[in-house]
Write a structure and sequence with these properties.
The chain is globular and about 60 Å long. The chain has helices at 2-15, 23-33, 67-79, 83-102, 104-111, 134-158, 185-194, and strands at 39-40, 43-44. The protein is built from 7 helices and 2 strands; from the N terminus they run H-H-E-E-H-H-H-H-H. With 195 residues, it is mostly helical. Helix 6 packs across helix 7 (185-194). A two-stranded antiparallel sheet has the order 1-2. A hairpin with a 2-residue loop joins strand 1 (39-40) and strand 2.
Length: 195
């Protein structure tokens, strides 16, 4: 859940041109989420928090039930936890994201902000090969491959059932080697659409 909230904060910061749109800046958001929200005179001091202070001008932050407001409430909840509990939670998060930064071959990717690579072009007949073997990239390669697979699945799903009547749309062939590393619940839900 923390990763999702980090992405919510990240999206808001990117939208307001406060951070670059890359993986490294998501890691920086997670690091800021680790910091407790201090109190000043019995009130939460958002202005002194390095993450929240950057979003105080975002109206969504104060809209109850919005994604940004929910993420803010999560930071407040985490601030109220005992230091040891908070540290344990973020240690788990760090263990999930650090492999992306510990592989030298992925460092350029993690800090890149621009790309000409558009995976959604598979819908119009573009062909791509993605080679992220676990023996070279570790679990980070598997995770990136899963994210790319999810992006293809979402693109196929979102174009709807009448895709063949849409101009330029092509059938998508999706071939995975070592698929046992990438299979998850999304695969089962996509079978009827992908068949």
């Amino acid at each position: 859940m923390i990763l999702i909230q980090a992405k919510v904060f990240h999206n808001a910061l990117v939208k307001n041109d406060k951070v670059e749109n890359n993986f490294q800046s998501i890691i920086n958001v997670i690091d800021m989420m680790k910091l407790k929200v201090e109190t000043n005179g019995g009130k939460l001091d958002f202005e002194s928090h390095p993450l929240i202070s950057q979003l105080l001008d975002n109206a969504e932050l104060s809209i109850k039930g919005s994604m940004l407001n929910n993420a803010l409430n999560r930071i407040i909840d985490l601030s109220n936890l005992a230091d040891e509990t908070n540290s344990s939670i973020f240690s788990s998060v760090d263990n999930m994201v650090l492999p992306f930064l510990q592989n030298e071959r992925l460092l350029a990717w993690s800090s890149s902000t621009k790309s000409t690579f558009d995976l959604s072009k598979v819908l119009i007949g573009e062909k791509f090969g993605i080679n992220l073997p676990e023996k070279v990239y570790g679990m980070a390669g598997v995770a990136i491959a899963k994210m790319l697979k999810a992006k293809v699945y979402n693109s196929v799903y979102n174009r709807g059932e009448a895709w063949s009547q849409q101009e330029g749309q092509q059938r998508v062939y999706f071939v995975i080697d070592e698929c046992h590393l990438l299979m998850d619940g999304q695969d089962a839900s996509m079978l009827s659409i992908m068949a």
